[in-house]
Amino acid sequence: MSYKGRIDIVTIVIYIVAVYVATIAIQIYQPVTGGYFNLGEAVIYLAAILHGPIVAALAGGIGASLADLSTGYGIFAPATAVIKFIEGYFAGWLIWKFRDKARNIKAAVGALIGALYTLLLIFFAIYYWSGPTYVGPEQFLSLTITSAYLEIPVYVWIIIVLVIGASLSYVLVKKLVTAWEPLALIFAGLEMVIGYFLYEYFVSNPLTGRQPVAAIVEIPVNIGQAVIGASIAVPLASWLVRAGYGRGKSD
């Protein structure tokens, strides 16, 4: 079924709100660039899988930019509106355009993709996510917020990502979704990584007195954001389809 039949205002609004909430719920500040890690990609990718490019694009562009504006990251809001719009549209377009052609990907390929995802998650868990973490925004609507402080040991992160990776691998091997979906999301995520690098290098870092070359530091962080977003969205979308929500209802 074409994704065009699934577009409606209520669905778009729901996903805009969901992207907004996911983006502000966990914000890990990156002092070198002034940006932050968040889970908004998971909802953008979920919208792309279940509802196609239009819903994902509008949810990403509007929801994420509103999150920037309301939590003290307004300098990124214009770039976020464009970058996340393109990311959502690209993710949805790739998945829906090539879905039928990708049905016959073998389980072994799915297992390999799951393993590579798991290795990437372990890398980011060890080098970027473990240690001191402030949960939630530091600012909301110009009000300063005392964020919750967590000290998460590396072994806890490894356990978490192994569970996520195993879940994703199981879904891929069992062909509940095509192995093409996580690949499509990573391709779309690369647009986000490149977009923010260019914006930070040429616009936000110079405006805030930071070195333009510091934008390189956030590249692995944004890659990790795309990877963990896809790792959440793919199994969740499969479960929702099996429960009768989204593209599974009429396919």
TrEMBL record:
InterPro entries xrefs: ECF_substrate-spec-like
Keyword check for Transmembrane helix: yes
Protein name as it appears in the record: ECF transporter S component
Organism: Staphylothermus hellenicus (strain DSM 12710 / JCM 10830 / BK20S6-10-b1 / P8)
Domain of life: Archaea
Keywords associated with the record: Membrane, Transmembrane, Transmembrane helix
Cellular-component GO terms for this entry: membrane
Transmembrane segments annotated in the record for this chain: 12-30, 42-67, 73-96, 108-129, 149-173, 180-199, 219-241
Pfam families, per database record: ECF-ribofla_trS
